[in-house]
Amino acid sequence: MNKEEILAHLPYSKPFLFVDELLHIDENGSSGTFTFDKDLDFYKGHFKDHPVTPGVILTETMAQIGLVCLGIYLTGSTEGRTRTCNANFYCH
């Protein structure tokens, strides 16, 4: 399965899709990108006049790229198959 096919299988849509691009994927891990638009709703109140991306959104972004994309790659599909994976997250 190639990168574009994996992205097409993600079970998310905007505004809860946090993957712009899948840069690399193999059996050892995956990396990708997402750019947070400054006009996203949560910035209006978290924190007022000093916007910060909520930690739960950062965690979800890492999970979508690092676990869901990797899981789709490792199983070859999104249906009825599971596999245990070890995941490491690196934020730059």
Characterize the structure shown:
With 92 residues, the protein is of the alpha+beta class. A two-stranded antiparallel ribbon has the order 1-2. It is elongated and about 45 Å long.
Q: Which segments are poorly predicted (pLDDT under 50) over 5 or more consecutive residues?
A: 80-85
Query: Shape, please?
Result: elongated
What kind of sheet is the major sheet?
Answer: 2 strands, antiparallel
Quaternary arrangement of the chains shown? Answer: single chain
Kindly state the mean pLDDT as a whole number? Answer: 86
Radius of gyration: 14 Å
Strand content: 5-15%
Order of helices and strands: HEEH
* Classification by helices and strands: alpha+beta
Strand order of the largest sheet: 1-2
The first-to-last residue Cα distance is: 27 Å
User: Helix content range of the residues, please?
Assistant: 25-40%
SS summary, helix count: 2
Number of strands: 2
